[in-house]
């Protein structure tokens, strides 16, 4: 029997994504977010939700662009740090020993050390209570060759993205492959 636990911000899985922006002075900044996901296939778009109080909020509003950087498990400590510290107070790239790279497509930096990056131009904003939902059109994806399969598609087991659990406030890795999508369910008819 299911038990009611109330209205909470619980959904599984929740990504651990790092949003890259420039501040008003052109300084690179990065912030870890969990309220995010794909929101449209044509045009390809993602959404991220930030509070107005964050330093990255102003950077997105100013530049009308952002990057989404997906860290591997090797960089879970750095990703956590980027969600704790504020770019108002310090250079988070320098403090985390990460390298900002200027995107050629959008006025936003990406993290060199992270294996998978989405470069996005801002399409829409929607204020929802405490957060603002930013919808970005994906203009390009950059992936390390080492995380691509033989068909040049990203391989989740090679990327090893970090997943966040808001219920117990912990990070996890990706589990095992359960089967081919749009295929394994065909035998259940």
Strand order of the largest sheet: 3-2-6-9-10-5-4
| Tally of separate domains | 1
What is the count of DSSP helices, taking H or I runs of 4+ residues?
A: 4
Class derived from helix and strand content: mainly beta
Please give the CATH architecture: Roll
Order of helices and strands: EEEEEHEHHEEEEHEE
Helix content: 10-25%
User: What integer is the average pLDDT?
Assistant: 95
Report Rg. Answer: 17 Å
CATH superfamily: Electron Transport, Fmn-binding Protein, Chain A
Counting DSSP E segments of at least 2 residues, the number of strands comes to 12
Q: Overview of this structure, please?
A:
With 189 residues, the chain is mainly beta. The protein has one domain (14-188): Electron Transport, Fmn-binding Protein, Chain A (Pnp Oxidase, Chain A). It contains four helices and twelve strands. The chain has helices at residues 55-63, 76-84, 92-95, 156-159; strands at residues 14-15, 17-22, 28-33, 36-41, 44-51, 65-70, 100-102, 109-111, 116-128, 131-143, 163-165, 170-172. The radius of gyration is 17 Å and the shape is globular. The two termini are 27 Å apart.
Question: Can you summarize this structure?
Answer:
With 189 residues, this protein is mainly beta.
Task: Explain the layout of strands and helices.
Elements: E1 14-15, E2 17-22, E3 28-33, E4 36-41, E5 44-51, H1 55-63, E6 65-70, H2 76-84, H3 92-95, E7 100-102, E8 109-111, E9 116-128, E10 131-143, H4 156-159, E11 163-165, E12 170-172
Antiparallel strand pairs: 1-11, 2-3, 2-6, 4-5, 5-10, 6-9, 7-8, 9-10, 11-12
């Amino acid at each position: 029997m299911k038990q009611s636990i109330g209205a909470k911000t619980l959904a599984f899985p929740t990504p651990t994504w790092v949003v890259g922006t420039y501040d008003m002075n052109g300084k690179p900044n990065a912030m870890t977010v969990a309220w995010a996901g794909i929101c449209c296939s044509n045009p390809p778009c993602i959404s991220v939700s930030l509070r107005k109080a964050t330093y990255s909020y102003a950077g997105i509003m100013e530049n009308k662009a952002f990057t989404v950087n997906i860290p591997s498990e090797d960089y879970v400590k750095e990703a956590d740090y980027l969600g704790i510290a504020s770019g108002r107070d310090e250079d988070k790239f320098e403090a985390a020993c990460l390298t900002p790279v200027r995107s050629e497509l959008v006025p936003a930096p990406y993290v060199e050390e992270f294996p998978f990056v989405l470069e996005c131009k801002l399409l829409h904003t929607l204020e929802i209570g405490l957060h603002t939902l930013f919808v970005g059109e994906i203009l390009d994806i950059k992936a390390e060759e080492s995380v691509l399969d033989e068909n040049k598609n990203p391989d989740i087991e090679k990327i090893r993205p970090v997943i966040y659990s808001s219920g117990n406030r912990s990070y996890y890795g990706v589990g095992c492959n359960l089967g081919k999508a749009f295929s394994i369910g065909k035998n259940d008819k």
